[in-house]
């Protein structure tokens, strides 16, 4: 059974008496350990879909099922990483990473265990030297690393990421892309990663879900045929990137071959 | 540091100018000393009340009432404001009552307060409490409403449920804006302290004003007034300093 199953999900919002459909009839499955990118233009409902998967919003129709259970509320089994980090500015790096460990549902960790666990993940994202720093003293890229460490520290099954590198410069972004890909493999996480950057999706994903707007619908789901460490300038990489680019402009009936 | 020094210089220049103009008006206008004391007369009264110890006693009495009234108002109003802030449905019903009570001058309650709690420290303390309570309450509720929604998401995601979320996430996230309300309430509360001390007490700066009037000592009256102003100014400067530290600690602009 797939880890994540979305069955005919539709999301409507009420806006001043009118109903607005953010996305409609979305069905998809995500396997354990898969890295899935949700790709689409601004406003096509990517964040809304991710919020529905993460339990922040409930779909109007259809279902979202994770590990056999319908999603009704957020859980620290699946943690979301936001574009603007969501760090607590009044806590230092160490204390930020400990946040999710202070309210563990399963077993209360002692203070020493919390500290140890946080230190392990701070080290994993390469910020050991900044344990005592406050978010404002760190660059955007470093802050996002803290958010990643905080998410990993609760040892979730799934990471949801909503344009996590959207606010970073190109060099920092590509460094973090490398790190997130490596981390997701080492830590064996399932990742659902929202982006509007085709190169980013092709670089990271095992599978790309392409959405179209008004209302958000799935246009295509494509497996990325590239294996192992990817090279952004390799011929196959660029070729596949062009394929994905083309998909945005295809008519629906031309897409069938990619859906398999 | 340079900026503070410049600030101090401006304050000195501005006060010197005020005193100069005051003295000039006094000399040119040929006013009756009892109706319009000169700065020198007021200064003499200041020294006199300092030497006989009455000024410091009154300052101490006022500051004690102020500290108790203001601090308890801040604690109660922030706690209540946080709870009402996360329960907007409840606040809808509480808000009309708050809006009804808020425009009533704390002094209007003074007769009732004296009837209920008698004379002594309590009435002036309660007046200060009322004066500080509503601004802090309302600024806390609106601070909670203005918290970046991402903090609520983070709290839910990591299983930080109530009442922990209130203390660990919501209060600190709203704190800079709450601090702003606390700051504004300080000035208001200080204004009403002196008024509150004009009934039912035998000490404090407000009492000193009334007492000087009854004894026709306009020089002491003016000395008391200037003391009230000077302490208000000092309190404001102190809380401004605290405000800046808070903004800094919360990652605001460090200028
Ligand atoms: N709570 C809400 N109430 C009403 N409309 C909403 C709400 N949340 C999102 N929408 C609307 O749903 C649509 C999809 O929004 P969403 O944020 O999911 O898009 P997105 O694909 O993430 O865009 P971007 O790339 O700009 O982040 C938008 O038109 C948005 O205005
Ligand atoms: Mg979005």
Summary of the model, kept short:
The complex is a heterodimer of chains A (260) and B (255). With 260 residues, chain A is α/β, with parallel strands linked by helices.
Name its key features.
heterodimer, A: 260 residues, alpha/beta, six-stranded mixed β-sheet, four-stranded antiparallel β-sheet, 8 helices, 10 strands, B: 255 residues, mainly alpha, 10 helices, binds adenosine-5'-triphosphate, binds magnesium ion
**Overall pLDDT level of chain A:** 90
Q: Structural class, judged by helices and strands of chain B? A: mainly alpha
How much of the residues of chain A is beta strand, in percent?
A: 25-35%
| Small-molecule binders | adenosine-5'-triphosphate, magnesium ion
Helicity range of chain A: 25-40%
Q: What structural class is derived from the secondary structure elements of chain A?
A: alpha/beta
Biggest sheet layout of chain A: 6 strands, mixed
Q: Give the end-to-end Cα distance of chain B, rounded to a whole number of Å.
A: 11 Å
The H/E string of chain A reads EEEHEEEHHHEHEHEEHH
Count of beta strands of chain B: 0
Spatially, the strands of the biggest sheet of chain A line up as 6-7-8-3-9-10
Instruction: Based on Cα principal axes, name the global outline of chain B.
Output: globular
Give an overview in words.
The complex is a heterodimer of chains A (260) and B (255). Chain A is an alpha/beta fold and 260 residues long. In chain A, 32% of the residues lie in helices and 25% in strands. Chain A has helices at 46-54, 93-98, 111-124, 140-153, 170-186, 198-204, 235-247, 256-259, and strands spanning 4-15, 18-30, 35-39, 61-66, 69-70, 78-81, 158-162, 190-195, 207-212, 217-223. With 255 residues, chain B is an all-alpha fold. Chain B is 80% helix and 0% strand. The N and C termini of chain B lie close together (11 Å). In chain B, 34% of the residues are buried. The mean pLDDT of chain B is 89. The interface between A and B is medium-sized, with 24 and 19 residues. Bound molecules: adenosine-5'-triphosphate and magnesium ion.
